[in-house]
Specification:
Helix content is 48%, strand content 11%. It is mainly α. It is globular.
Length: 112
């Protein structure tokens, strides 16, 4: 559930907002694509970088990198992680599928 949206924040304000939520016992996902997003991607429970045009600093700090700039892919990955978790991993059998899917899915499981 989405509880709060903040926009037009400076990098230090983003980090402070994430720390505020964390101290309140909430888990935070940060979505960003620029150098100014890298510090907050690093401190969030889940850092999601938009990879198509994202800055290298953001991509390096993120737990999950979406390979295009469609935010709905994050929701799709989150739903996929839930389905994969409930089926105890039987969905993926090949080694390449685990590499492509398990790494981001394990990051998304931090939200549970």
């Amino acid at each position: 559930m989405l509880d709060d949206i903040r926009a037009e924040l400076k990098p230090e304000q983003k980090v402070a907002a994430i720390q505020e939520f964390t101290l309140a016992g909430k888990k935070v996902a940060m979505v960003g694509d620029g150098v100014n997003d890298a510090p907050s991607l690093a401190v969030a429970h889940i850092g999601v970088a938009m990879g198509a045009r994202g800055a290298d600093a953001a991509l390096e700090q993120a737990d999950v990198v979406l390979m295009n700039d469609k935010l709905e892919n994050f929701l799709a990955a989150f739903r996929l992680s839930h389905r994969a978790r409930t089926s105890s991993g039987r969905i993926f059998s090949s080694r390449s599928a685990r590499w492509l899917c398990w790494s981001p899915l394990r990051c998304l499981e931090k939200f549970r």
